[in-house]
Amino acid sequence: MPDETKLKQLGLKLFEINAFKFGDFQMKVGINSPVYFDLRVIVSHPDVMDTLADLLTEFIVETKLNTTGVHLCGVPYTALPVATLVSIKGNKPMLIRRKEAKKYGTKKLIEGKFNAGDKCLIIEDVVTSGSSILETVVDLRSEGLVVTDAIVVVDREQGGVQNTEEQGVKMHSLFTLSYLLKVLSEAKRIEESTVNAVAKYISACQIRSDGSFMKNGTKVVNELSRTGMSFEARADLAKCPLAKELLKLIATKKTTLCLAADLTTTEEILNIAEAAGPYICLLKTHCDIVSDFSEQFVRSLQSLAQKHNFMLLEDRKFADIGNTVAQQYAGGVHRIADWADLVTVHSLPGQGVLKGLKSAIVGDRPAASRAVFLLAQMSTDGALTDEKYSTATVKMATEIDTDFVAGIVCQSKELVAPPGLLQLTPGVKLEEGVDGLGQLYDSPERVVKERGADICVVGRGILSSKTPAETARIYRDRLWEAYIERISADKNGASSD
């Protein structure tokens, strides 16, 4: 280990500049923590940056990771300036991993000069579960780089070591949370009660890479992996860029309402979009039932979406081979890819349907501005989407096209676990029941709290109202209240374990 005196001095300095603090903070994994680290502040303190870089450089040598030909890669974004200084001080080449690939030029995900088979050492600032390290590992290995070790500034001791080791990466930490507590306690900077509270928290919250918790050696699948987390926290975990933006939109606008504008004339659709626009996050269309569809209609609809801050979802339910869906998406009269932010897709054709849709996103429009909802379950009585089909659909979203799938259309909260995926659930009405064609309806409270819906689709409940704007507001308020109750209940349940 580096010099003990220097380590203690740096630990105290980090506390003095508020790089970590004590209180009650919500973490991105959805739980509250009595301690919070924000090492981003060190960029405003050159002396701290210099000391930290010196200690890390020394640490890399002492752990015998300073081998010939090894590259350094800082986890974006906080660790990048630290990795840069270590690269200079240790005379080691550095690579930069983008959070998403460039949509122009070389379209690289990893920047820098390297060859397949080269070794790469990851540098990270703070580790809780190790998920950010593992995301970086996946991208580096996809380029042929060999990754076996990671150097971190602070290990919160909540599962990161085990989670990374399971993926063949050994984690080496300059500080552990326990060590920092000891340093601060000995220096009389914190009370013994604070030390005990944080120690109890560490013991109670061992986070696994799948979002579950280890408590007393027992794995507990916790609802905070999705339904107990806030939309703001989940936005940080979304792998699909458009899902990230939609989660932020929902959180900002405080609405989970999707209006199904299943109307047959452009005038009707534009009127309802104007009326309900302030209360919705999505407007869902069926463009092939619109009798007077036109480019002017598309422009007007996009203008309303921008005015009222909602996205457009075309409920096309693509379900053909890749070549065909590419043409259906980008061509024909409707040219859906030009205006729809999101589209619905059946998983029946397999991965080819997603590849086909992706291939149709060309020109100046960035691929990150488009995404899909995969249809795993339907809300009609007697639907043939059985458990095996639904599970396979979710697998497509979580293992294959994670950057293109924003969410899942389904009726069950157990089906969608990753917090970065959105569950879109149709069949919502203020009064539950079944219509004459077998469409099942659930109340806003039931569909959010029991079925786990993130976005709720309402059609005739608003379209048939004499006051659609007021009715949309009522739906928005009831759905949002149910969401607040859902995450509050899950947090209270988690804290009592």
Query: Count the strands?
Result: 21
Largest sheet: 8 strands, parallel, barrel
The value of Rg in angstroms is 25 Å
Number of helices: 18
Class from secondary-structure proportions: alpha/beta
Q: Name the overall outline.
A: globular
Mean pLDDT: 87
Fraction of residues in helix: 40-55%
Give the strand line-up of the largest sheet.
Answer: 12-13-14-15-16-17-18-21
Distance between the termini: 37 Å
How would you explain this protein's 3D organization?
The chain is of the alpha/beta class. The protein is built from 18 helices and 21 strands. The protein has helices at residues 4-16, 46-62, 79-90, 131-142, 160-165, 177-186, 192-204, 231-235, 241-253, 266-276, 295-308, 322-330, 336-339, 351-359, 387-399, 444-450, 460-463, 468-495, and strands at residues 20-26, 32-37, 71-74, 94-97, 110-111, 120-127, 149-155, 170-176, 206-207, 213-215, 218-220, 257-260, 282-285, 311-318, 342-346, 371-375, 405-409, 422-425, 433-434, 440-441, 455-458. The strands form 5 sheets. The protein has an 8-stranded parallel beta barrel, surrounded by 6 helices. Strands 5-4-3-6-7-8 form a 6-stranded mixed beta sheet, sandwiched between helices. It is globular and about 75 Å long. It starts with a helix and ends with a helix. The model is unreliable at 220-224, 433-439 and 492-497 (pLDDT under 50).
